Amino acid sequence: MSQRILTLSIYLLQSITISLTGLLYLLFALVFYMIFFDPRQQTPDADYYVLVLGLFGALFAFLVTLSVASRANRAVHFPFLVRLPSRIEYLTSVILVSMVFTLGVQFLLGLFAIFANGPDFTVLQLMDIPPIWIAGNTLFIVLALHASDLVASGWSRVYVFGV
Q: For the residues of 42-87, what is the DSSP string, one character each?
């Protein structure tokens, strides 16, 4: 089971990374960096850094998950879906790819912001970053997955977003 998830995840990650969509997401990240972390100025506070990059990660995770789910839902990928004994493996690979791509871009953007004009961090502040970013990303990945056509076949999405 884990080998099928890993194989499908690598395939979907390669598909999103070398596509025009992946390039546009990287350009979106650079524009975000130029707006919120101007290289000519010092980043004011470590909390600003964590909060702004956390919000970026949540928005970015939502968009990436919608893109990966739409790629996975294409008719060319249905032979994968037929061969898998459970649809859960397919959904898990979409979640895994979205999380890896989002955290990768978020981490690179964070490194740019730290090395160019970043604030000074304490060890406690550095330890706070991963739980905050991963929790926000996970929430928005699940919301985006429920907003996609890959999951929401035969039922209304209004209930999920209404709650």
A: ----HHHHHHHHHHHHHHHHHHHHHHHHHHHTSGGGHHHHHHSS-H
Q: Read off the tokens for 26.
A: 């990287």
**Residue 154: left (phi > 0), alpha (psi -120 to 50), or beta?**
left
Q: Read off the pLDDT of residues 95-139 as tens digits, 9 standing for 90 and up.
A: 999 999 999 999 999 888 888 777 778 888 888 888 999 999 999
Residue 43 Ramachandran class (φ > 0 left, ψ -120 to 50 alpha, else beta): beta
pTM, 2 dp: 0.86
Pairwise CA distance, residues 53 & 155, whole Å: 34
